[in-house]
Design a protein that fits this description.
The protein is α+β, with helices and mostly antiparallel strands and about 375 residues long. About 65% of the residues lie in helices and about 10% in strands. The chain has 9 helices and 8 strands. Helix 2 packs antiparallel against helix 5 (about 135-215), helix 3 (about 110-120) packs across helix 4 and helix 4 packs antiparallel against helix 5 (about 135-215).
């Protein structure tokens, strides 16, 4: 009995060994095939990301053009307003001049004015009524002076009227030109907005394509999280900045801490306040808080401060992006290879990797 049990146990053990599943090691061909597939997936993802970036660049360029047109429109509105004010002033001057000349004429006696209205016969009557030769000469001289004075008054009035009419016409021409420019700018705005609608559809498609190929890139997300932690640490350790009338030195930590207050603020064409920012409006607003005045657009701000090389970048430096040296986007470098910016229409102020292929230059504007 014991032998039988032992025999069965041995056989069961052997069965386990015999029937234990065995997985064969993958062949070198399989490994190579998987590597090739992985590389193909990576290449496809890279192409999708490059396509999305190209579309985003086009969106940024359009945003920048729209902002420039909006600035022109606002400047033209001011010029039109000034032109209208000048026209009103000119008309007022004209009316006052005419009134002054009219009062000058009223200084003559009623008789002289009556003679001026009735014509030359009245002047002859004055002469005929003279008493003696001396009185005759005196009356002739008076009539002569009256005629000369009237001619001067009339000529003066006419000259002033012509001068003021010329000025009025000139101002009217300028006003018409400004209105034409403003109308042209509005047409440009309409065309740009239509292009923007088309671009927005493209970027939605690109985002869908990228999402279908890969989730968020872990490395970029980890770097963003680390940057946010660093900024929070800076915010906690940096004393609140109090604007001063005198020239002061601004720390990069203070700039980064203040700029981070606006994370999540929506992008807005021509926006220069926390109600909505465009890219240059955001940087201008942040630095104005520290008493540093920057230009209104990317084209202005790329000339503010002084240039710094890429390997010398410090938090608080302005970084610029675009093509052919012409900036279409910008933001504030915050360290750790990241920058804070107001990206584009439909987005919000956020932190992104500054290492874009369209990087142009950086400027340092801190005192």
């Amino acid at each position: 009995m014991k032998r039988t049990s032992r025999y069965i146990a041995i056989m069961l053990t052997l069965n386990v060994i015999v029937y234990k599943p065995v997985f064969a090691a993958p062949s070198s061909n399989q490994i190579q095939s998987e590597r090739e597939q992985l590389q193909a997936d990576k290449n496809e993802l890279k192409r999708a990301q490059e396509k999305r970036f190209e579309i985003e660049q086009r969106i940024e360029n359009l945003d920048n053009q729209i902002e420039e047109v909006m600035v022109q429109v606002e400047e033209n509105k001011k010029k039109i307003l000034k032109g209208n004010q000048d026209i009103k002033i000119t008309e007022k001057d004209l009316n006052e001049s005419e009134e002054n000349l009219r009062k000058e004429q009223e200084l003559f006696s009623k008789r002289m004015k009556a003679m001026y209205v009735n014509g030359i016969d009245s002047y002859i009557q004055i002469i005929l009524e003279s008493k003696g030769f001396n009185d005759f000469l005196s009356r002739v001289e008076i009539v002569k002076n009256i005629i000369e004075t009237d001619k001067k008054i009339t000529a003066n009035l006419k000259a002033k009227q012509e001068e003021l009419n010329i000025k009025r016409k000139k101002l009217s021409d300028i006003n018409n030109q400004l209105i034409a420019i403003n109308n042209e700018n509005n047409k440009k705005m309409s065309n740009l907005k239509l292009s923007k609608d088309e671009q927005n559809e493209l970027i939605k498609e690109a985002e869908r394509q990228e999402r279908s190929l890969a989730a968020e890139v872990n490395e970029s997300q980890a770097r963003l999280n680390e940057t946010l932690r660093q900024i929070q640490s800076i915010r906690n350790s940096t004393p609140k900045y109090t604007p001063s009338r005198g020239a002061v030195s601004v720390s990069s930590n203070a700039v980064v801490a203040y700029a981070s207050n606006f994370l999540g603020t929506p992008y807005k064409w021509g926006g220069t306040t926390p109600a909505g920012f465009d890219c240059s409006g955001f940087t201008q607003y942040v630095y104005r808080h520290f008493g540093i005045n920057l230009g209104r657009t990317t084209y202005n701000q790329i000339n503010d401060g002084y240039s710094v090389s890429r390997d010398e970048l410090q938090p608080g430096d302005l970084v610029f992006y675009g093509k052919g040296g012409s900036p279409s986007h910008m933001g504030i470098y915050v360290g750790n290879g990241m920058y804070i910016h107001a990206p584009r229409t439909g987005d919000v102020v956020k932190i992104s990797s500054y290492s874009r292929p369209d990087y142009i230059t950086a400027r340092r504007v801190m005192k």
